[in-house]
Write a structure and sequence with these properties.
Elements (H helix, E strand, L loop, with lengths): L2 E5 L4 H12 L3 E6 L12 E4 L6 H4 L7 E4 L11 H22 L3 E5 L9 H16 L4 E5 L2 E3 L10 H9 L4 H6 L2 E3 H13 L5 E5 H6 L8
Parallel strand pairs: 1-2, 1-4, 2-3, 4-5, 5-6, 6-9, 7-8
């Protein structure tokens, strides 16, 4: 049984992941902003705090095996570029620093597939967060989806014929796989596996591994 703290536990992936971990018998603490506690999945221990503030993690991290950092701007788009640094990067920085100070055994971060032709500011922030994780020498699992399908997140399905064509061409096949679509169920399953099988060093999971539900090979 793992002891997990989730930052961003009230969001699109956070609620689903919390529920999945609880269902498998893990103990989950959900870091939630004041006023959002009612959106936490049933069975979680709720702790209130600001995911952008390192101090909010200190007490909740006591006795925790894994910190999962999901806090960030909802429904990211090019129009929200300025928020990526002020919200996503600040949240990642606070979580990484708190995990390093507390000696958390395992850190899980949802990054983004890169390089990619769009959302350059978003990818730049996620890449900076990955660099912070490396610099902190954390044992970590980094997931790199491109787009996660779910309720209200279906429009990329219109691009499936394009993906199919690109996947058939030798010179675009690798990019099509790396920038492929994953479902919420696939990424949640992969994160649960990551929690149950923590790495030594940094493990990076790209779209093919997320789709397959494979935690892949550990690497530093």
């Amino acid at each position: 049984m793992a002891r997990v703290l989730i930052s961003g536990a009230t969001g699109f992936m956070g609620r689903r992941l919390s529920a999945a971990l609880v269902a498998r018998g893990h103990r989950v603490r959900a870091l939630a902003r004041p006023g959002s506690q009612t959106r936490v999945a049933a069975g979680c221990e709720v702790v209130t705090g600001d995911p952008l503030d390192r101090a909010s993690y200190r007490q909740p991290l006591e006795g925790v095996d894994t910190l999962i950092q999901l806090a960030g701007v909802s429904h990211p788009s090019p129009a929200k570029a300025a928020l990526f640094s002020s919200v996503d990067l600040r949240a990642a920085t606070a979580a990484v620093e708190a995990a390093r100070e507390a000696g958390v055994p395992h850190f899980v971060y949802v990054s983004a597939a890169h390089p990619a032709p769009v959302m350059k500011e978003y990818i730049a922030v996620r890449s900076k967060a990955e660099a912070l994780i490396g610099a902190a020498a954390l044992n970590a699992t980094i997931l790199r989806p491109w787009y996660v399908l779910g309720p209200g997140r279906r429009w990329p399905l219109m691009l499936l014929p394009v993906y199919f064509t690109l996947g058939m061409l030798p010179w675009t096949r690798d990019s099509a796989r790396r920038l492929g679509l994953v479902t919420a169920a696939q990424i949640i399953q992969t994160m649960v596996l990551a929690v149950e099988h923590p790495p030594t060093g940094i493990r990076v999971l790209e779209v093919p591994q997320i789709r397959a539900g494979s935690i892949g090979v550990e690497r530093r």
